[in-house]
Design goal:
The protein has 7 helices and 14 strands. It is α/β, with parallel strands linked by helices. The chain has a single domain, classed as 4-Layer Sandwich (Metallo-beta-lactamase, Chain A).
Length: 213
């Protein structure tokens, strides 16, 4: 079976900030991961159960509330699933001030991480290798996740834009460096699946993104 054909990706746009939440699964082995569950919502659970998938990982590209709000629901339903985030954003999971939800009037508290996402580690999802890249700038512990020819950039790189850097721990210099040194080095056809907005490709961003000119 072709590996790319075997990879299932479902995008759900959830929460008031229209966060892109991704369910990725290996059809061959029926193991799955969820990237950035934005809010408590049954949608992802429905997809997992409809497709008879076993949730192995819950990955947060960073710790802001609009990317972690569904962690608790998923962990309660799938207790064996590992909740993963970079160690520099780990405190955001349990601290509504640090994850910025305190200021919305609806504080979000996630369970703590089971382990950490680090630059250079590879995680196996069935037949597929999941590679982690440390891409700070939007937050101190922002990471991006590559699976086959797909690059999940969180809030680091968007179509024709970049993530905000005016939050605590943000840095415009870091985010530009992250994009140029960790993302655009991949092939022009590599697809970018960001934390908000439409998907794009590295080729389009190198050509059109004003922050990369």
């Amino acid at each position: 079976m072709d590996k790319k054909a075997d990879l299932m990706i479902r995008k759900k746009i959830l929460g008031p900030l229209l966060t892109n939440c991704y369910l990725i699964a290996c059809n061959e082995t029926k193991v799955a991961m969820v990237i950035d569950p934005a809010v408590e919502n049954i949608t992802m659970i429905d997809e997992l159960e409809k497709n008879s998938l076993s949730l192995k990982y819950i990955m947060n590209t960073h710790g802001h509330y609009d990317h972690i709000g569904g962690n608790k629901m998923l962990k309660e339903r799938y207790s064996a699933a590992q909740l993963l985030i970079h160690r520099l954003d780990a405190e955001m999971l349990t601290n509504p001030i640090k994850n910025l939800s305190f200021y919305t009037g609806n504080p979000v508290q996630s369970p703590p991480p089971d382990n950490f996402l680090e630059e250079g580690i590879d995680i196996q999802l069935g037949m597929h290798k999941v590679s982690i890249f440390y891409t700070p700038g939007h937050s101190p512990g922002s990471v991006s996740i590559k699976i086959d020819g797909k690059f999940f950039s969180g809030d680091t790189l968007f179509a024709n834009g970049i993530g905000r850097t005016d939050f605590p721990g943000g840095s415009i210099d870091q985010i530009i460096c992250s994009i140029k040194e960790k993302i655009v080095i991949f092939g022009a056809s590599c697809e970018i699946l960001p934390g908000h907005g439409p998907s794009t490709t590295i080729q389009r961003e190198v050509k059109n993104n004003p922050w990369l000119q």
